[in-house]
């Protein structure tokens, strides 16, 4: 009988690719499972250019990369608003190719190594039909936060109760129809698409569809841990009995690598931008817990006016900062010589700017004392794992919910959503890095311990990964 063979297909952007590759590597460490990782051609090229991923995965004989077009021209951006086109491209172009691959092609039931389980991003509704057609189990991996995904699934309920579209302009009104979040979530904390004035908005329609397909999978995988999102995971269990919360994946993987390999400090970077390591030398020269790390991830963008507000806020706070200014992340900024001279001068004194950083390593550096983040789920988890408090400036999708949870539920930072004003930035930076520094760092330590416990032997994520691997092993066609 053929070995279990899982086909992993992420949404081709940095965050999902990063954590799905980490899950793939964890499967490889468990052995006895074949793993095929299906990347878009665009992502694969960039991964090969920027990381040692090819060498790293060579040591796993049961692992294989395959590629597929994502439907967009090579020079088309895949960030900001373009992510919507990317999802459409995958549906129109990649999905028929994937169907062909698993029905009659290279990975079909008649092939040498047939796929026995599809493990795909939760956004891909088309996978339900493919899995049914071939007769193989489907697992969805939703790489956004479960707390945000839960609000997505409650969108039909919110519509039925007349809570969305919003009536009136009061974004601070509490939302009543998301079970488990009563008294916590305000309108402004719902995913950004809930602000659309009418229900014909394509994103809302997609989200309603997502809620229907996601519960048809045999199981749902999340990059989270019980100690962080236990109550929300319980809500999911009412819809889908097989929930696997195996995160935080990056430390789960590091932990497994150090127990199974002789070299404990292996790089696990899956960056699609070249990391500028010079910032690590700069961090080495800064005092303990003195630096604010600033990054808005791989997709979010800001206007030039917002860039300047944040920049003045940082400089006026007199805090040291390390800022990732990703190429293309500032709309309308032609050249950095547009920047007022006083900002450049103060930055030379107290700051460091790079185009892409080794973020996991940066957050683990002793000189980091805070993180001004867009609250992408990977960044949020990476910060929690290092006990680094956050100032949250969410951009879209799950980030509005994540930032509310960081501030209000986990008490690990300040939520700056919907504001971009230099005086507020300065005030929040001072509050986090000076006034409430000890309180936040103490809370950070508690959260970090919970995260580490979950991936230690016997911890909740450790056990869920074992259960997931066992269930995949039992899947046969
Ligand atoms: N990242 C990085 N270097 C940077 C900025 C980001 O390695 O300079 C990584 C970060 O560690 C995280 C990912 O990019 O794993 C961003 O994912 P996230 O879910 O936070 O946000 P997204 O980019 O999907 O909006």
Topology:
Blueprint: E1 5-9, H1 14-30, E2 34-40, H2 41-50, H3 53-58, E3 63-68, H4 82-103, E4 117-121, H5 126-134, E5 138-142, H6 146-153, H7 155-160, H8 202-214, E6 219-222, H9 226-237, E7 243-245, H10 249-260, H11 278-284, E8 291-295, E9 302-303, H12 304-317, E10 320-324, E11 330-331, H13 341-350, E12 351-354, H14 359-363, E13 368-373, H15 377-385, E14 390-392, H16 399-409, E15 413-415, H17 422-435, H18 437-455, H19 460-474
Parallel strand pairs: 1-2, 1-4, 2-3, 4-5, 5-6, 6-7, 8-10, 8-13, 9-11, 10-12, 13-14, 14-15
Helix pairs in contact: 1-10, 4-5, 12-17
Pfam families: UDPGT
Organism: Nicotiana attenuata
EC number: 2.4.1.-
Features:
single chain, 477 residues, alpha/beta, Rossmann fold, seven-stranded parallel sheet, six-stranded parallel sheet, 19 helices, 46% helix, 14% strand, globular, binds uridine-5'-diphosphate
3D architecture notes:
- By secondary structure, this protein is α/β, with parallel strands linked by helices.
- It contains 19 helices and 15 strands.
- α16 links the parallel β14 and β15.
- α1 runs parallel beside α10 and α12 packs parallel to α17 (422-435).
- The mean pLDDT is 92.
- Uridine-5'-diphosphate binds next to α1, α14 and α15.
- Uridine-5'-diphosphate binds at residues 13-15, 18, 271, 295, 297-300, 324, 356-357, 359-360, 376-379, 382.
- One of its GO terms (molecular function) is quercetin 3-O-glucosyltransferase activity.
- Keywords: Glycosyltransferase, Transferase.
- Its EC number is 2.4.1.-.
- It comes from Nicotiana attenuata (Coyote tobacco).
């Amino acid at each position: 009988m053929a070995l279990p063979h899982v086909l992993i297909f992420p949404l081709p952007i940095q965050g999902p690719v990063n954590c799905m590759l980490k899950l793939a590597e964890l499967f490889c460490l468990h052995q006895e499972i074949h793993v095929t990782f299906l990347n878009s051609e665009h992502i694969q090229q960039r991964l090969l250019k920027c990381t040692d991923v090819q060498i790293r995965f060579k040591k796993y004989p049961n692992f294989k990369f395959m590629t597929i077009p994502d439907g967009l021209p090579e020079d088309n951006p895949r960030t900001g608003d373009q992510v919507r086109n990317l999802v459409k491209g995958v549906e129109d172009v990649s999905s028929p190719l994937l169907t062909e691959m698993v029905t009659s092609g290279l990975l079909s039931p008649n092939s040498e190594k047939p796929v026995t389980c599809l493990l795909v991003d939760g956004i891909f509704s088309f996978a339900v039909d493919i899995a049914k057609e071939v007769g193989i189990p489907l697992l969805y991996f939703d790489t956004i936060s479960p707390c945000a995904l839960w609000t997505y699934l409650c969108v039909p309920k919110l519509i039925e109760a007349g809570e969305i579209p919003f009536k009136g302009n009061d974004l601070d009104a509490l939302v009543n129809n998301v079970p488990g979040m009563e008294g916590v979530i305000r309108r402004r904390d719902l995913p950004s698409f809930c602000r659309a004035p009418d229900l014909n908005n394509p994103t809302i329609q997609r989200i309603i569809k997502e809620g229907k397909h996601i519960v048809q999978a045999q199981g749902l995988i999340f990059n989270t841990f019980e100690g962080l999102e236990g109550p929300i995971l319980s809500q999911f269990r009412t819809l889908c009995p097989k929930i696997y919360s195996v995160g935080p994946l990056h430390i789960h993987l590091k932990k497994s690598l150090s127990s199974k390999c002789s070299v404990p400090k292996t790089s696990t970077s899956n960056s699609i931008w070249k990391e500028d390591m010079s910032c690590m030398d700069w961090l080495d020269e800064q005092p303990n817990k003195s630096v604010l790390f600033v990054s808005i991830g791989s997709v979010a963008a800001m206007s030039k006016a917002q860039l300047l507000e944040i920049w003045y806020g940082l400089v006026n706070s007199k805090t040291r900062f390390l800022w990732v200014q990703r190429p293309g992340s500032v709309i309308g900024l032609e050249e950095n010589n547009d920047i007022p001279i006083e900002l450049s001068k103060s930055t030379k004194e107290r700051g460091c700017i790079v185009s892409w950083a080794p973020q996991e390593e940066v957050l683990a550096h002793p000189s980091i004392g805070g993180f001004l983040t867009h609250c992408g789920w990977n960044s949020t988890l990476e910060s929690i794992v290092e006990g680094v408090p956050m100032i949250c400036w969410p951009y879209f999708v799950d980030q509005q919910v994540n930032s509310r949870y960081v501030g209000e539920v986990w008490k690990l930072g300040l939520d700056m959503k919907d504001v971009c004003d230099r005086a507020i930035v300065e005030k929040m930076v001072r509050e986090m890095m000076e006034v409430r520094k000890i309180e936040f760092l103490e809370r950070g330590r508690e959260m970090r311990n919970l995260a580490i416990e979950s991936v230690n032997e016997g911890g909740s994520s450790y056990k869920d990964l074992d259960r997931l691997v066992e269930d995949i092993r039992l899947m046969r066609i």
